[in-house]
């Protein structure tokens, strides 16, 4: 994240910042935690999410999940399956181009995902530090969802991030090879069947991919991004206990 810790006493080793959530928000923390963090950030007007908890804040989501597009990829009732989160992956939305970036070390995860379903590929994305804005999903009192754009405060947005991506091969048009649409706080990309086959093969092989039409562009880039620090480093500086023990 990009929160400012200036003038704060912080550990020299990696550390975690707790986020207080309501009981009704728990399923979103389990299914797609970044969605919840960005929505709390929008509520607090602090991009991308606050480091100070306000205990009296109102819930930003209810436990109603029947109308979200994510129910296709996550079992919100029994948690028998859930959407894969690919750490280090980001999506740049800039003008007429959507650029998907995946770290090379995530190749095996993507290969397994593609081999489980080559017709529809979906996964959650990581925080995009290069973006100056982010798609945020709001839920109203009826349980319906709408999209907002949360910015860092810049007047002219250049790059917008997303929380997840869905790519399928169900586009029927013979003239247009792809369509791109915003869905909640994610992006849905629909490809022709032949383009979907090529995209799936690029994911399996760890190769770059690019597709263009007269109005839009979609690209996949594999980058040699350094993995995050070892989980073993996340220990309390006070008693050396693991910070990941629930």
TrEMBL record:
Gene3D superfamilies assigned to the protein according to its UniProt record, in alphabetical order: Domain of unknown function (DUF3480), N-terminal subdomain (3.30.1360.220)
Gene Ontology cellular-component annotations: early endosome membrane
Smad anchor for receptor activation-like C-terminal domain span: 10-246
GO annotation terms (biological process): endosomal transport
A Pfam family reported for this protein in Swiss-Prot or TrEMBL: SARA_C
Protein name: DUF3480 domain-containing protein
Lineage, opening ranks: Eukaryota, Metazoa, Ecdysozoa, Nematoda, Chromadorea
């Amino acid at each position: 994240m990009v929160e400012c810790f200036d003038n704060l006493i912080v550990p020299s080793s990696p550390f975690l910042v707790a986020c207080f959530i309501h009981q009704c928000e728990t399923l979103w923390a389990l299914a797609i935690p970044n969605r919840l963090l960005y929505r709390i950030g929008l509520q607090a007007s602090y991009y991308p999410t606050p480091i100070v908890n306000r205990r009296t804040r109102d819930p930003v989501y209810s436990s109603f999940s029947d109308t979200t597009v994510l129910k296709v990829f996550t079992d919100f009732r029994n948690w028998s399956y859930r959407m894969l989160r690919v750490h280090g992956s980001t999506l740049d939305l800039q003008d007429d181009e959507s650029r998907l970036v995946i770290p090379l070390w995530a190749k095996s995860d993507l290969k397994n995902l593609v081999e489980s379903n080559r017709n529809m590929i979906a996964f959650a994305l990581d925080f995009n530090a290069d973006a100056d804005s982010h798609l945020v999903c709001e839920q109203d009192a009826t349980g319906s969802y709408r999209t907002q754009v949360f910015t860092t405060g810049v007047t002219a947005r250049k790059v917008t991030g997303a929380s997840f991506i869905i790519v399928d091969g169900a586009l029927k048009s013979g003239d247009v090879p792809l369509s791109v649409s915003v869905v909640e706080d994610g992006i849905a990309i629909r490809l022709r069947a032949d383009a979907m086959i090529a995209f799936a093969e690029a994911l399996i092989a760890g190769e770059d991919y690019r597709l263009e039409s007269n109005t839009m562009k979609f690209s996949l880039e594999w980058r040699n991004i350094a993995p995050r620090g070892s989980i073993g480093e996340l220990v309390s500086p006070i008693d050396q206990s693991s910070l990941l023990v629930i």
